[in-house]
Amino acid sequence: MTTIASETAAVYALGAPEGKLVPAGEDALWVAELGSGKPTVFLHGGGPGCTSWTDFAPVAPLFAADRRVLLVDMLNYGFSSVARIDGPRWTAHARRIAATLTTLGVTEADFVCNSIGGSAAVALAADYPHLVRKMVITGSEPVHRGRGAKTPELGFEGMTAWANYYGGDGPSPEKIVPIMERLEYWDPANVAPDRVELRYLYSLSDGQRMLASAEAWGEPEDLADKLATVRARILFFFGKQDIFVQNTYPILLSDIAPYGDVYLMDEAAHHMEEERPADFAAVVKAFLDSPVTNA
């Protein structure tokens, strides 16, 4: 990306940690690290301008107190490589994440994942089990059966968010705000101006603009069969007010996985890690720090 120096300077000025491009096979993924200890990989959601820092900034320091936090940005997000995905999308993301972790010498990591990051992590745990110890998956829809928004109207708004954001006059902070307020947060008053500005800056990349075209995402992929093979313990941690899923959906996922706990947090939506960081970290740490590791 020709403007990466100026773009990184802009997000660093807003508090983003310094990172680097790490080889991921034919591509490279952007990784920022904090702290030391057990490797803990954070994978972000799929909205315009999302990165692992934008999604997990409020909680990352809480985990970095005693863990090695790896904030990984997936293909076409943040400053990672730009490329159209050919074939099943989650398997493609998992392959690149696995290559990145191998380059960094990371194995048996814990994963904390939001939305599309959780789907990528399911594929990763199935295809590269040596890389995964435990997983926390929030707001993800890796299985096609049973998925669906709280209402058809909200579902349509979510499905058209990308096209609307990049259409018309193009990206702007003003257009990010309703995405965060209506689709991601439980309480719109919690959407802070600096979070909006970060999302806007990250949304300007070539990779993000390309994802406004549905074809760039790769083929849809139902991970039911792969989820059934995952031996790592999983916590399906969902917000009760998450507009993208029915509250019964994480139970369905738990029934498919060999071992899956379920936690439903009230007064919490798709980005509860941003709205309720202390509560989020307490639940996730309790799960990750418990001694039993495998189903």
TrEMBL record:
Domain AB hydrolase-1 residues, every copy: 41-283
Pfam families recorded: Abhydrolase_6
Keyword Hydrolase annotated: yes
Entry keywords, A to Z: Hydrolase
Classification via InterPro entries: AB_hydrolase_1, AB_hydrolase_fold, Carboxylesterase_BioH
Keyword Hydrolase: yes
GO molecular function, one term: hydrolase activity
PANTHER family for this protein: HYDROLASE ALPHA/BETA FOLD FAMILY, PEROXISOMAL MEMBRANE PROTEIN LPX1
Protein name in the entry: Putative meta-cleavage compound hydrolase
